[in-house]
Amino acid sequence: MNPEIYADINLPFSPLAFTDEQLELNALKVELDRFYHWSVAQFESNMDIEILVHTRAKFIDELLHRLWQHYQLPPQVSSLFKRNRIALMAVGGYGRGELHPLSDIDILIVSDAPLTKLLEERIGELVRLLWDLRLDVGHSVRTLKGCLQEAKADITIMTNLLESRLIAGSQNLVNDLQKCIFADKIWPSAEFYRAKVDEQIQRHKQYHSTSYNLEPDIKNSPGGLRDIQIIQWIALRHFGGISLKEITQFNYLTTEEIKEIKNCRRFLWRMRFALHCVITRYDNRLLFDRQLSIAHLLGYQGDGNQPVEKMMHDYYRVVHNITELNQMLLQLFEESILALNPQNKPYSIDEYFQIRDKLIDIKDNDLFTNDPTMILQLFHTMLLNPQIIGIYSNTIRQLRSARRKLDGLLCEYPKARDHFLAMIKHPEVIKKALLPMHQYGILATYIPGWKRIVGMMQFDLFHAYTVDEHTIRLLLEIADLSTEQGQKKHPNSSKVYAKLAKPELLIITALYHDIAKGKSGDHSELGAELVKDFCQLHDIDKKDSELISWLVRYHLLMSVTAQSRDLQDPMVIREFANQVKSKTRLQYLLCLTVADVCATNETLWNSWKQSLMRELYFLTLRTLDLGSHQIPEQRSIAREHKKEALQILVEQGFDAHLIEQFWLDYRFDYFLRYATEQIVWHAKNLLNHHLTEPLVFINSKPFHGGTEICIYSPDRPYLFATVSNELSKRNLNIHDALIITNKNEFALDTFIVLEPNGQLIAADRHHDIIQGLQKALKQTDYKRVKVKRPSSKLRYFSVPTQVNFLSTLSDRKTYMELIALDRPGLLACLGEVFANLELSLRSAKIVTIGEHVEDFFVLTNKDKQALDEQSCTQLREAIIQAIDNMDE
């Protein structure tokens, strides 16, 4: 805070002039409301945001000062309280004179000695009034000695006190406090520096150490306001009250960099002020359902989501600049504050670069300007010298300067391409070169099209990051496949990755897989064409180039097939194998798919998805080995399952004749569509059961990475809806359903379910779930349970309902795909539609992708045949109408 600017602020009306009548609760609410609306009007009129946040702080200053007088607190009536000095102080952000509409108002009441009872009562009345006014006041009451003890024990309290200032009371007491705080006895500068840096590291981890979350926190995310405050706090502690501007005399920041920090802070302040105008409770998160309103308030124009895209693109540019400046300054502070060993002199690597305390540094500040290809050589040198852990602050500064002066792309220089091709083949290239190249904005100056996806929003709940950040995380997932941690997380994929002849082809694929997002057309097809040009420019072998282009074009194929198709259907595997064509493509595609899914969202990968990928991989591998024309016929597969199951059951002591009699009720389709272990599990539970009674049983072992629930019940309309209802009521997510009806019209349906967090159902829940399902099965009248309305976050998205019927070689089944907004009770609703139209559900794959679902259903009519065109039209209309009715 600049004291001169703060003193010159003119308030629209001064609380210091409030009469005693105006200090009553209701009257004060009116005055605060009047000031709030004045502030919003000034904001919309583009008042300087610095003046606006300082004006609010000054308004609260004068209000507190007047209330201090109103409650006759010292020094006005010091005779009542003997000689005890007391002061009301602003601390924290309020101490800096920065208040947004919903900011916390942190105050400290400090005194020489413990407060008298009368003082406690009057201060209590003041604080209660502030709370009744619904001001977010955080207050502490301490003695001077207590303040110093607390500050010594807690870095947060120490930080708040560094920015403290007097509002009312004894200035001498405040001077004594600040004199002690800035002494070396409490949090010496070096200890304070280390503590604040550690604090920043831990805070960044809470946001996955990236600025590119799609719903960032303006204050606390990497590159946010807190990263600017860290710089201020460290400078304040070390230099004792020096402002950022005054730091220039110590050669820490140039005038241009000071201006850049202020502009970045001004942008974030405006965004935060707008956020506080949109919401009613304190928060700093740019959630999806707030972004459009904030963008409009900030003056961004356009159709649909264009205002948000423009706003967030500016936001990501700003936080990237703050991150670079923060890192550069913390390095400079470290050298000064920690007083690094003067004997630790830089030592030379070659004629261009040197190592300074494990950081790479350039010898000539004009190196990058004179020869831009040296930027690529910098990262190549880092890669070849494992002792280097980062880039020195001066080199960061020169990189930033050179990057802004570039006229074209670095890949246009043959020497730069040589460096890139050499780096891409190095086993550590992702973490040691590509990651820092992205962090310092160099990928955008090298790869054609990368600059366009930097900070590009993805408007869904499926992706957690911007397009460029997702791509970087995909690369990091690929790198982890060769680590011990990656081998534990992805046992199959890591083995396949180790066999890849040219891992660098996978890296180029990853860089380009989403590079065409946001363009008009299919981003996979457009990206495949763009990567061909990249490969040609870099003289990549034609065969390798074709593989990379194919992988970019079909990078979603394996994920869609595994999650949305019936893997027990040989025709599905045959079609997938025909598209893949070779083991080499399959191996690269598996690694790419697994990394892509994991890099999309921290919570997306689970044991169910892992199981599906593994199953599809091995089924396809077997098909490619045999040749698609040699795949066993369906009846042959069914006979094999039946034979294996019989052998296992007999070995476990079951009578073979009894088993054969039991299986007479089941058609070959049952043995085709269920795996051997499932057939054995069913038989063990049903052979000793009265087969005319319903039964529910849960597998104690995971199947396909999920918990398997089996429903044996007389087939009837609304059976699928009933089960879906009950499972939804218990907050369980259905991922897969297989529906079989035997010759006696009994259903044997299996559901693969998981908890909302992707975990298996705990064993201690099994009994209650079984009881609930059995009770539901006994009810003769179906009635959908009332479910909670979609969250406000879901309501922010608009997903048009699509019902697509997929082509199939079978004339006995209809394949239907549903794309719709996710809603509680959706599956039960669909089950009702199927029952009303007398359709039989054969199987279902349930895939939730953020805010929408992409579900796959296999259906037949009541004659067990595929639906004709008229029936498909009728079904589509019924589903759309039923889903529309759910929202009413």
UniProtKB/TrEMBL annotation:
One of its GO terms (molecular function) is nucleotidyltransferase activity. The keyword DNA repair does not apply. The keyword RNA-binding does not apply. Uridylyltransferase (UTase) activity is inhibited by glutamine, while glutamine activates uridylyl-removing (UR) activity. Its EC number is 2.7.7.59, 3.1.4.-. Residues 708-787, 815-888 form the ACT domain. Keywords: Hydrolase, Magnesium, Multifunctional enzyme, Nucleotidyltransferase, Repeat, Transferase. Its cofactor is Mg(2+). InterPro entries: ACT-like_dom_sf, ACT_dom, HD/PDEase_dom, HD_domain, NT_sf, PII_UdlTrfase/GS_AdlTrfase, Polymerase_NTP_transf_dom, UTase/UR. Residues 349-707 are annotated as: Uridylyl-removing. Residues 1-348 are annotated as: Uridylyltransferase. It catalyses: [protein-PII]-uridylyl-L-tyrosine + H2O = [protein-PII]-L-tyrosine + UMP + H(+); [protein-PII]-L-tyrosine + UTP = [protein-PII]-uridylyl-L-tyrosine + diphosphate; guanosine 3',5'-bis(diphosphate) + H2O = GDP + diphosphate + H(+). SMART domains: HDc. Has four distinct domains: an N-terminal nucleotidyltransferase (NT) domain responsible for UTase activity, a central HD domain that encodes UR activity, and two C-terminal ACT domains that seem to have a role in glutamine sensing. Belongs to the GlnD family. Modifies, by uridylylation and deuridylylation, the PII regulatory proteins (GlnB and homologs), in response to the nitrogen status of the cell that GlnD senses through the glutamine level. Under low glutamine levels, catalyzes the conversion of the PII proteins and UTP to PII-UMP and PPi, while under higher glutamine levels, GlnD hydrolyzes PII-UMP to PII and UMP (deuridylylation). Thus, controls uridylylation state and activity of the PII proteins, and plays an important role in the regulation of nitrogen metabolism. HAMAP family: PII_uridylyl_transf. PANTHER family: BIFUNCTIONAL URIDYLYLTRANSFERASE/URIDYLYL-REMOVING ENZYME, BIFUNCTIONAL URIDYLYLTRANSFERASE_URIDYLYL-REMOVING ENZYME. This is Bifunctional uridylyltransferase/uridylyl-removing enzyme. It comes from Orbus sasakiae. The lineage of its organism: Bacteria, Pseudomonadati, Pseudomonadota, Gammaproteobacteria, Orbales.
